[in-house]
Amino acid sequence: xxxxxxxxxxxxxxxxxxxxxxxxxxxPTTEAVATSEQVPSTLPVCKTVGGGSVFFDVQFCLxxxxxxxxxxxxxxxxxxxxxxxxxxxxxxxxTTAAKIAGLLLRDRGGKGVDDEATTLSLRTCEALxxxxxxxxxxxxxxxxxxxxxxxxxxxxxxxxxxxEQCEDGFRKSKVASPVTMENDDAFKLAKLAVALxxxxx
Length: 201
Ligand SMILES: *[C@@H]1O[C@H](CO)[C@@H](O)[C@H](O)[C@H]1NC(C)=O
Fold this sequence. Notes:
The chain is mainly α. Helices cover 78% and strands 0% of the residues. The protein has helices spanning 2-26, 30-36, 43-51, 58-66, 78-108, 116-145, 149-173, 180-200. Helix 5 packs antiparallel against helix 6 and helix 6 packs antiparallel against helix 7 (149-173). The chain binds 2-acetamido-2-deoxy-beta-D-glucopyranose. Residues 63-64, 67, 88, 91-92, 95, 185, 189 line the site of 2-acetamido-2-deoxy-beta-D-glucopyranose.
């Protein structure tokens, strides 16, 4: 079995090699492909914080920072990267709060789209994300910018915890969470910002 797998693997590697080298000689688009696969400038930063984290990986860091144009010039400036991550968190939490408000509005519409447990969990999340957005706007983002790392870390950890509490509400009520992905993103963005901040100080 193992031999068969190894043989299959080496066959596939050969196939890939030939496909690759064939492409190099024949395809005129090779240069464009190489350019689009350029090493992102945030790779060293993301390798450092993602490699050392149990909360998010290198790929998450690359995708998150890469979604903000400012990261192209951030280089290995951990402070700038932490500001970007904190801003992404604000934007993320704002969108999530709006989504939750929309779901609750639909529930209030009289049709009772969701069961009571789901609605109650959503209300808890509404309050939690409302708090995150309020804190981000009324100081958290500013203390990250101002390199006040103690306060900033506390703020960001509160945001991470809010996302966890939101998800826990659904789990405890044994109902499906309609915001699992959003909670996961907010949690990881907050942890990413914390890790970047730690490296910056
Ligand atoms: C939230 O953050 C994640 C991770 O960076 C990203 O993939 C997603 O597009 C963001 N969503 C919004 C609505 O900002």
